[in-house]
Prior knowledge:
Structural class: alpha/beta
Low-confidence stretches: none
Strand order of the largest sheet: 2-10-9-8-7-3-4
Number of domains: 2
Largest sheet: 7 strands, mixed
Radius of gyration: 21 Å
Amino acid sequence: MGYDFDKLTDRRxxxxxxxxxxxxxxxxxxxxxxxxxxxEVREYLADRTAHxxxxxxxxxxxxxxxxxxxxxxxxxxxxxREWLIFCTGVVPAISxxxxxxxxxxxxxxxxxxxxxxxxxxxxxNGRVILESPLVYDGREYSVDWADLEEKLADPQTTLMLLCNxxxxxxxxxxxxxxxxxxxxxxxxHVLVLSDEIHCDLTDPGCEYIPFASVSEVCRDNSITCVAxxxxxxxxxLQTAAVIVPDPVIRxxxxxxxxxxxxxxxxxxxxxxxxxxxTRGEKWLxxxxxxxxxxxxxxxxxVKREVPGIRVVPSQATYxxxxxxxxxxxxxxxxxxxxxxxxxxxxxxxxxxxACGRKFLRLNTACPRARLQEGLxxxxxxxxxxxxxxx
Length: 390
């Protein structure tokens, strides 16, 4: 391996959201990696910093080409230049779309359990959250087609937020599933916003399918949010893109982003994305292999050492969804106990919808020694929880 993913970088004292916790705690909650970003990206940032002037910035031609080349080469999806709009982040883009393309009181559909910030973007803007829970058979998740169509058919439902690949369950949606979602949404006049921020973090040998690439129907009735921030650990640089093939929808999205003042880059946002997509491919491929081994390590350890918890199979993201249903009806209570007992900080599943109440989410994106420590803490705390009959 050419890159050192075993390096233990101390993140305390640097204003890290993830690591702003008491000294004894080990945070494995928010989707933020404990790896330094690709050296090639750091080289660009060092050069940009050395320039010493940080005035207003523009979106360069290189930025458009980097996205076009990456999605064409890596994901088999030819993106036209005019489809791309710069944005400071996927979440700002989602919130802006909710404000601009729906009205107060309308319903926005989500497939739960799902990324909890979707709820904030809907609720904070006066729209109504409409859940279509995924079906869990004790092993994996699938779409409840009857429930989905019933809720899409509601005239008050005007937007669907799709998570592709899915966070927190790590599901890569098939072409057939995405196509059927697209057809149903078009049939019922519901616009699709596809959050594809985790698309580059698939297991080796697995590939995600861009929603807009599936069919003309999907392409012409969709907005796609993408970014290098998850894959290259650049969230703090505030850099993302929105892909909108349809010109009428694109005009509305562009006006919304500009009205909300989230369409202008800072001094590092454009160049860092270009460096990641044009120079960081080898690093990313090695990272994906390392993350896959981390996830395998968790699966094997939990199966062997932590009775009562099952790891839900996943093909994407560095997050693992832990089924705690055999030992508790309230995984939030369990998460609180684990944090008090051993300092291991996990995310309680109910944050992703009521159907996540028996689950926990674990972030595996850290050096293996740190992951091993986290697993040992999990084992000790679950054993104590069982002994105490909490």
